[in-house]
Each structure stands twice: as C-alpha cells, then as structure tokens.
Amino acid sequence: MRASRFFISTLKEAPSDAEIVSHQLMMRAGMIKRLGSGIYTYMPMGLKVIRKVEAIVREEMNHAGAIELLMPLVQPAELWQETGRWDKMGPELLRVKDRHGRDFAIQPTSEEVITDVVRSEIKSYRQIPLNFYHIQTKFRDERRPRFGLMRGREFTMKDAYSFDRDLEGMQKSYKIMFDAYTRIFTRFGLKFRAVAADNGAIGGTGSHEFHVIASTGEDALVYCPTSDYAANMEAAEAVATGARAAAGAALAKTSTPKASKCEDVAKLLGIDLKQTVKTIALTADKEDGSKQHFMLLLRGDHELNEIKASKVPGLAQNRFSTEAEILEVYGCKPGYLGPIGAKGPVTVVADRTVALMSDFVTGANEEDFHFTGANWGRDMAEPALVADLRNVVEGDASPDGKGVLAIERGIEVGHVFQLGTAYSESMQATFLDENQKPAPLQMGCYGIGITRILGAAIEQNFDDKGIIWPASLAPFELVLCPMGMDRSELVKAETEKLYNAALEAGIDVILDDRGQRPGAMFADWELIGVPHRVVIGERGLKEGNLEYQGRRDTEATAVPVAEALAFIK
Ligand code: ATP
Ligand code: MG
Ligand code: MG
Ligand code: MG
C-alpha cells in the first residue's frame, strides 16, 4: 500500500468526549469516526485492524471445527417471543417495525435464529455435534455507551452456537471452544485471563469470560497466584464466606434506610476505620440549586490525591454536579459511588469504595474528618451497593484453599457459556436418538467482541507517542519512510526496490510517499502504532545502510540494505 493512495487522517488532540486512552488514540489515529452515541464509522485504518482480528478468529474457529454462516441483522419478533427474550431483554433490545406494523429485533445475539435454523435442519443424532458461527454486526442499546469501540451500541461480535446430543457432548464442545479462545487471544499477542463467570451451579465450569488485563478495565478479576483459581468478582462473591459476605447479607435484608454512624457501618462491614479507611467528601450541585454531599469510605491503601488527580469528564475535579450527571457518568443513583467505570486511578479506588450520603455540609477531602453523622442514604439497600459491599478483597483465602487472592482489572473480550436446553426446549429443537426417541439439543454459545478487541489491545499497549499494536493486529506491519524521495534518485530507487521485496515476502507494508517532513511522518506512524519502521536516506544508503526502528525501541539501528527485511521477519 502506498500512503498517497490510502486514507490517513491523524489528529494532534483527541476530542474531549474521549475519556480513556484507547478511545483517544483511536480517534487521533483516524481509526474510527463517531456518527452518534455508541455508533462509529470504521475508517480504513481501523478497518484494517478489525479485518486482522476477524481473520485470526475465523482461522481458529474453522480449525476448531466450527462452521461459518451469516444470520440476519433484522429478526422477526415472533422468534424472540418464543423464548421470552422479547420481554426479558428490556430497553437494550432495539426494536423496529416494518411497513406492515410487524415487530422486529435488531440482533444483540442470535440464539433464537440459530435454534430456528437447527430445529428445521437437524433430525437425527447422526447430524450432530455441530457448531455454527458468524461474524456479524450487533446492536445493543446500552445504557451508557462509552469508551469508543469498547462499549458501543453498534459493534461486531463473533458468536458461535454448539449443538450436542447430551451434557457430555456439550461439555466437550465447550472445551473445544475454550481452547480455541485461548489460542485466539494468544495469537493476538495480548495478556489475558480466563475466569469462571458463574457461581459454579453447573459443575463449576458453566461459563467463562476471557479478559484482557488492563488497569482501566471495567471488571474486577479475582485470582489466586499460587493456584488455578480465577473468577470474575460476581462469581467470586457468590462463593465468598466470612465477615464481609455476612455483612453484605445483613445489608441485603435492610430494606429501609436507617440512620447509623460511620463507625457502625464500619463495624458491620468488618472494616478497621483507623487502619484502612480514609474518608472523602464530595459536593454535588443539585438541579434546584441546592447542594448534596457524599461521603466515601475507602477501604484499602488509597491516596486521596489519586482521587484529586483523576479527572471525571464533564465535571470539575472532586465536584459532582447534578443528580442527572451522576446518573449519567456513573450509572448509579446519587448517594452511591460504587463500581465507578474505567476512570484511571479512581477505578482502583472504586473497587473498594463504600459511599454514604451525608446530610451535613462538609469540606472536601479532609482525611479523617467525617466519621460521624452520616446517614444511610435512601439508596443504601440497593442490590448493586450490597454487591459492592460484599467485595472479595485481596488477601482473602482462595476458595480452593491453595493460597490467598489477588485482584486485577480486566476488559471482557470473550465469553463462553453452557446453555443446556433452555433455548432448545422453549423452541422445541429436538433430534431423534438411536431409538427414534426425540430429545432436546444441548447448546453452548460463545462470543468474542471483535471491535472491542481493538480498544482492549490499546489499553494494554501504548505509550506517550501513541498505539503500540501487537504485530498480529497492526494495520500495517512495516512502514517505509523515504527521506526526500522526490529529490534523490538513489532513495527513490532503493525505496521502490525494498517496497516490492516486502510485498513479495508477504509483509503488510505501507510506503509513506506523501512527501511529508520526517518529524510529522514519524509522529503519524508512532501514533498509528506500526510495529516496524525502516527509514531510507541518502546518507545511509551511501554506506549501504538503512535505519530500522521497532515501535518499542528507543533509537534506530543501522542495518545493511540486504538485511532490512530479514531483520523484520
Ligand atoms: P459486558 O459485560 O461488557 O456488557 P456482555 O457480558 O453483555 O458484555 P456478552 O453478551 O457476553 O457481553 O457478549 C459477548 C462479547 O461481546 C463480550 O464478551 C464483549 O467482548 C462483546 N460486547 C458485549 N457488549 C459490547 C458492546 N456494547 N460493545 C462492544 N463489544 C461488546
Ligand atoms: Mg452487556
Ligand atoms: Mg459481561
Ligand atoms: Mg458476557
């Protein structure tokens, strides 16, 4: 590819609504363009990465014996009514009517359609096991679309569905997919962790999530460094025992708000105020002009300046505006600042944060100042908060008894799920066994967030210059940067030679023939995150050399012309 014939559009500054690094860098690198809330055009540079993700997914799915088809985006409501999901899904399901007034869903996944396909196609045990997949646009009307491709409303997912005759077969299919996912995320070159995502009801392996490890991740992962135990926070909490769980259960029973002092709250939670709790007060301006005050109790070792330093978009530091804004930014009710999303240092804090609504005026950020007089706010008995209070914390004993727990943050990029017969029973998808007896098909479903991978990969791989793509996902593997191609015949000739050799070697190469000055040219490719760069200059050529620099290298290395490509491969 020649840069002059491709589309490159980079920005110095990210738009102000881009809160996290991946969103900022993807916007700056011209990979995506916002059309509406959670809806993006994949620009040529971004689409190149998406296609690489898809290619790896496709290869490994095919290799694992899954079969590709393509199911419609627009799906008749009747199918969704059969399984009850038409009602159950609520506002996340986008519904449209056609000209005849018939209802349709824009697919958020495709269990119904694939089950419908299979119930009419599969008659006999001889035709299974089967695993169908597609890579298709999804729409979920997310309550808080944000972070660019990370939580879009329109996004691309690979979703697969397996069909087996019995539980054993289904678990085998599940294992095959689990292993395929492990290969896929390894090939992406990302640090990831598979965690149990259910409470162990189905033999402890009913569902796993695959997370890319990143401090900005929305999910807390609980794992034991000295054993195989790994679960998402919800699953870990479900099996947690001890004081915190008991406190959470006690709170769950508190259906009416009750006044209590921080000391009492701390006691209930088993928190030692003196050792582990810091308090912070935040002031919110309500729409009616009055102020509302929040107090946070922080469990764990947190620096208050971590919170001061963090920036919440749209809000002044340490000042939360209207109730509506709090709801908008945090998706939680005023008085509750529990699981705050990915907000840099706050995220870490939030994991351990208990928020109390206080009814007195306070000065913000005064450590150990607000221990008394706090009320349980009216929202304190909300299930979300109770869940937060039941947090498993670092240092707790691992449920397998093989060590203590550690916690890290992750971005959910894949999810495998043993569905059993829930869909096949409600939709009567059966097969005939050897004795001509009908039985419901055992299903599994398996998703990968294709477009979310881009954001997750960047959250894990960037520096102050821009994105650092793992080689397998980079839009281009190699960029050739000639110095003065229009002035020097030698440079021009050598560049063309190298470009053709790279193409022949099967390297995804881009030749920057835009005639830009070196500084601007290098800045672009560092921002875009191409892993290998070769600079072709007259001075070097006269000594028989080119300049090679890997994206993570701090300086360029002179390499003999003949060895330039070998150096890359
Ligand atoms: P989340 O917990 O982040 O809302 P989910 O559990 O609802 O995700 P699944 O139904 O398990 O998502 O879908 C499979 C995969 O699709 C997820 O693991 C994720 O990678 C991706 N995905 C889900 N929602 C979105 C979204 N709004 N934008 C981009 N990717 C998404
Ligand atoms: Mg979701
Ligand atoms: Mg999830
Ligand atoms: Mg999921």
Automatic annotation (TrEMBL):
Consists of three domains: the N-terminal catalytic domain, the editing domain and the C-terminal anticodon-binding domain. Keywords: Aminoacyl-tRNA synthetase, ATP-binding, Cytoplasm, Ligase, Nucleotide-binding, Protein biosynthesis. This is Proline--tRNA ligase. It catalyses: tRNA(Pro) + L-proline + ATP = L-prolyl-tRNA(Pro) + AMP + diphosphate. It comes from the Bacteria. SUPFAM superfamilies: Class II aaRS ABD-related, Class II aaRS and biotin synthetases, YbaK/ProRS associated domain. One of its GO terms (molecular function) is ATP binding. PANTHER family: MITOCHONDRIAL RIBOSOME PROTEIN L39/PROLYL-TRNA LIGASE FAMILY MEMBER, PROLINE--TRNA LIGASE. One of its GO terms (biological process) is prolyl-tRNA aminoacylation. GO terms for cellular component: cytosol. Its EC number is 6.1.1.15. Residues 33-470 form the Aminoacyl-transfer RNA synthetases class-II family profile domain. Belongs to the class-II aminoacyl-tRNA synthetase family. ProS type 1 subfamily. Catalyzes the attachment of proline to tRNA(Pro) in a two-step reaction: proline is first activated by ATP to form Pro-AMP and then transferred to the acceptor end of tRNA(Pro). As ProRS can inadvertently accommodate and process non-cognate amino acids such as alanine and cysteine, to avoid such errors it has two additional distinct editing activities against alanine. One activity is designated as 'pretransfer' editing and involves the tRNA(Pro)-independent hydrolysis of activated Ala-AMP. It comes from Massilia eburnea. Homodimer. It is found in: Cytoplasm. It is an enzyme of class 6 (ligase). InterPro entries: aa-tRNA-synt_IIb, aa-tRNA-synth_II, aa-tRNA-synth_II/BPL/LPL, Anticodon-bd, Anticodon-bd_dom_sf, Pro-tRNA-ligase_IIa, Pro-tRNA-synth_IIa_bac-type, Pro-tRNA-Synthase_IIa_type1. The lineage of its organism: Bacteria, Pseudomonadati, Pseudomonadota, Betaproteobacteria, Burkholderiales. The gene is proS. It holds the Pfam family tRNA_edit.
